[in-house]
Design goal:
single chain, 86 residues, mainly alpha, 0% strand
Length: 86
């Protein structure tokens, strides 16, 4: 992958626009945005949906727990099924 560096301005709608050289092919690209550090405060996500997901998961009862012996038996059965296929 080739790296290109441009200076641009982020507008009031939090959008930016880049004009790339003609030799850059169309298709997928990865964009990395570096902004000046105006404070030591990290940028908080707009929603805490991930936090809410973890709260919901923590509230759910744990199901389908297996004992160590059951896991060991399942692994032994799985390994036996390989039967020289490696």
């Amino acid at each position: 992958m080739q790296a290109l560096k441009f200076q641009t301005t982020i507008d009031s709608r939090r959008r930016l626009e880049l004009d790339l050289p003609r030799e850059i092919p169309e298709g997928q690209a990865e964009v990395i945005v570096l902004v000046p550090d105006s404070s030591n405060k990290p940028i908080e996500p707009q929603s805490d949906s991930l936090r809410a997901l973890f709260v919901r998961l923590d509230a759910q009862p744990v199901q389908h727990l297996a004992t160590r012996e059951q896991v060991d038996a399942w692994l032994a059965e799985e390994r036996a099924s390989w039967n020289n296929t490696l």
